[in-house]
Amino acid sequence: MTLQQIRYILAIAECRSVSTAAKRLFISQPSLSAALKEVEDEFGIRIFNRGREFSITREGEEFLIYARQVMDQMNLLENRFSSRKDIRELCSVSAQHYIFAVKAFSNLVKRLSFSEYEFTFRETRTYEIISDVAQMRSEIGLLYENGFNRKIIGKLLKENHLSFTPLFCATPHVFVSRDHPLAGRKEVTLEDLEPYPCLSFEQGQYNSFYFSEEILSELPHARSIHVSDRATLFNFLVGLSGYTISSGFLSEELNGGDIIVSVRLRVDDEMHIGYIRRKSGELSRFAGLYIEELRKVIKEAGYEPEEEAPAPPAMD
């Protein structure tokens, strides 16, 4: 099967007629019919019912889903490389809801001097971070491992040919509003938190304890609220006197230090936060620069990096 044949079949599906599609494509109807038959014979399927009433078969509908995805990717490829002089700089990152990751990304963009670029930063679910990197939608993914989830996360990374590089080790903290009854404490226990609602990021279809962004997710909570974005979580921290378990990293510049505070949680556990990437292939210059910014932000916050990364290429 060729890309040309895929284009032909998509045109037939859109026109709902072989003859109309042939006119649009400026080819003869017999040539178009022959191209369609070659694909159907190759895969042993029937894509269209030909007769008085044109229709798409059930297996044809499935074939067209994949065919459109192929053409979408081909169009992206052509747009990216059809004119080398017009190429914009690209960088894509997927991450759990970490403010240090946002701050580092912001720092990276500010230090660039390009007139055009196209960057993507996805705050998303744990399973989708792994999928994004595996499917090359993102170069870098940010998540954490600990004793509870390491085996499951490690298995997924291995299956998808990904590696995990630790950035720093964090002791668990809780985020609460500045007016929360526990806000003035240097340390709190799980028992101290029992009267208050526990907030966490929902994980959708893969809502397993092992994919939770919050450490100790396997513990029962009498009151729990699942949210999908950071702003909603912060609103509930303030409005409901809730709490969420986190790495403890806050940024007054981005979080608003007068609203949310971080308090150490007294538990015997820790989070190893790091980045995942594909094992094969080189990271782009901008992915390397982003990792450099991550390490700077982490160090400025007082965390000790777990492993030094090789220096990224110098910027032009």
Brief sketch in words of this structure:
By secondary structure, this protein is α/β, with parallel strands linked by helices. It has eleven helices and 13 strands. It folds into three domains: 3-81, Winged helix-like DNA-binding domain superfamily/Winged helix DNA-binding domain (Arc Repressor Mutant, subunit A); 88-163 and 277-300, D-Maltodextrin-Binding Protein, domain 2 (3-Layer(aba) Sandwich); 172-265, D-Maltodextrin-Binding Protein, domain 2 (3-Layer(aba) Sandwich).
**Which CATH-level-2 architecture of the largest domain?**
3-Layer(aba) Sandwich
Supply the helix-strand structural class.
Answer: alpha/beta
Strand order of the largest sheet: 4-3-5-13-6
Count of spatially separate domains:
3
What is the number of helices? Answer: 11
Percentage of residues in DSSP E strands: 15-25%
**Could you name the CATH topology of the largest domain?**
D-Maltodextrin-Binding Protein, domain 2
List unreliable stretches of 5+ residues: 308-316
* Run of helices and strands: HHHEEHEHEHEHEEEHEEHEHEEH
Please outline the major beta sheet.
Answer: 5 strands, mixed
N-C termini distance: 43 Å
What is the overall silhouette? elongated
CATH class of the largest domain: Alpha Beta
How many extended strands? 13
Fraction in helix: 25-40%
Question: What value does the average pLDDT take?
Answer: 85
Radius of gyration, in angstroms, nearest whole number: 25 Å
